[in-house]
Design goal:
Rossmann fold, seven-stranded mixed beta sheet, five-stranded parallel beta sheet, alpha/beta
């Protein structure tokens, strides 16, 4: 073997580990939430859907600490922090961003047109995020936590079944109310008055103030919006509902597990799995704008009879019979 052939062979072999390292460079995921603290956005902490999201990523071969680096960020329920959080995230140059909440997603979309964004949001159509669920286009895709504005009407209807004499319903929400005209029409059909309470900041003090004001307005029951900022404060929300002895319709099972009264909820485990699958496809070369936005088709009615008894409320037997899950 000639010397230069040998040197070339040795040199080529020396390059192999470097090439392998380049090929195995971990991908970077930014996990951003509007309300849940960053230290709870892990496989072992936070709500069930956060854990399922991490489990699914791992099952699909995206393993944190090996081929995936996850950086976690939170606005901790403060809408005034959204812009600074977005700037921080974009500055880290992640390969993909996973985030929630329509208003936060809008800032991400306005800030970057290249970094893929996978979002867990309310209704992406009425929220103005996309014009086509099947082909969102651009750098955005994700999962909707509802199946359109009609879910609000269904929750209001169930509350009326719980309390047929109810005439005034409180609606606690944060951020932009995407479809007030539809909500007003549903309220008229059901012959109830809905009083909206918009919280710019979702923390203990704001929640206390919101429930106190609704008590002064003598609402008969309350609907909690799907916003992630409320989910992050679910323990405080349930405690205040118990304190003011007001029946509350929740958007997720997590609240009922904490002692909440009733939920008409999507399967968050399924949505978390879809979210992780979108991330997996993008990390393997798919364009986010070509991945359809997923909307849940199955909602479950969960009733906590212990919570009903605590506030002296009798849930109609027919409604209990229809429930997918009854906590006693």
């Amino acid at each position: 073997m000639r010397r230069r052939d040998f040197i070339g062979l040795v040199g080529g072999a020396a390059l192999l580990p470097l090439q392998a390292q380049a090929q195995q460079k971990p991908r970077r995921l930014a996990l951003v939430h509007s309300g849940i603290p960053a230290d709870q956005l892990t496989e072992r902490g936070g709500p069930f859907w956060v854990r399922r999201f991490h489990e699914t990523l791992r099952r699909l071969g995206n393993i944190e600490g090996q081929n995936l680096v996850i950086e976690r960020f939170s606005a901790e329920g403060r809408t005034d922090r959204f812009a600074s959080v977005v700037a921080d995230v974009i500055g880290r140059k992640p390969d993909v961003i996973v985030t929630n909440f329509n208003d936060l997603v809008k800032i991400f979309v306005a800030t970057t047109k290249t970094t893929p964004i996978v979002a867990l949001v309310g209704d992406p159509l009425t929220g103005g995020l996309v014009t086509n669920l099947a082909r969102p286009g651009g750098n955005l895709t994700g999962v909707s936590i509802n199946a359109g504005s009609q879910i609000y009407g269904k929750r209001l209807q169930i509350l009326k079944e719980v309390m047929p004499a109810a005439s005034t319903i409180g609606y606690l929400l944060s951020g932009v109310n995407n479809d007030p005209a539809y909500q007003d029409e549903v309220a008229r059909r059901m012959q109830v008055t809905v009083i909206r309470s918009m919280l710019a900041l979702v923390d203990d003090a704001a929640l206390e103030r919101g429930f106190s004001e609704m008590a002064q307005q003598r609402v008969d029951a309350v609907i909690i919006d799907e916003g992630g900022s409320f989910l992050a404060q679910r323990a405080a929300v349930v405690e205040l509902a118990q304190k003011y002895r007001v029946p509350v319709m929740y958007p997720y099972r997590d609240y009922v597990e904490r002692g909440g009264l009733i939920a008409f909820a999507p399967d968050l485990a399924e949505l978390a799995e879809r979210l992780a699958a979108d991330v997996h496809h993008i990390l393997n070369g798919a364009k986010p704008g070509d991945i359809p936005f997923y909307q849940p088709s199955i909602f479950r009615l969960i009733i906590n009879l212990k919570a009903a008894k605590a506030i002296g409320l009798d849930i109609p037997a027919a409604l209990v019979a229809r429930a997918d899950e009854v906590i006693e």
